[in-house]
Amino acid sequence: MRTARFLALAAVLAFTAPAMAGDYKVGALTIKSPWSRPAMAGMNGVGFMTIVNTGAKPVKLVSAESPLAGKVEIHRSAMANGVMTMRRQDDGVIIPAGGATSFAPGGYHLMLMGLKKPLTQGQKAPVTLVFDNGRRAAVELTVQIAAPQATQGSAGGHAHH
Length: 161
Description:
Elements: H1 2-21, E1 24-26, E2 29-36, E3 45-53, E4 59-65, E5 69-80, E6 83-88, E7 93-95, E8 99-103, E9 108-115, E10 124-131, E11 136-143
Parallel strand pairs: 2-11
Antiparallel strand pairs: 1-2, 2-3, 3-8, 3-9, 4-7, 4-10, 5-6, 5-9, 10-11
């Protein structure tokens, strides 16, 4: 009986540890479950995650960069008059004090423009997030078909990229 309980606990830990291992901390910010979808070289890729700010002041994500892309832009998709639109966020995105901002399909996301190499399932794609407080966070986007359960958005995907 004890062996069965131990094996059950070990199985739970085996499945939860990778999700926790994918989080990154820089100062008062935690970047949770960064991920991307597969994409071909020369095309655009996407970056999704949740950024949590436990600090007393808001922080703004002002830019991002990746050696895998010609450039990285911050975008936001939104539904307007029944049509999905996408706009570059030149002023960045605020992560509120004591709050979180989600980068998910159908909302904020990173656009990895002009991929130099394909993004293949299981790969880790390096991205550096740059914040207005001078902090930089080096994260790895896990390339996978679907969103991790904890961060999956309710809106549709980005097949048009």
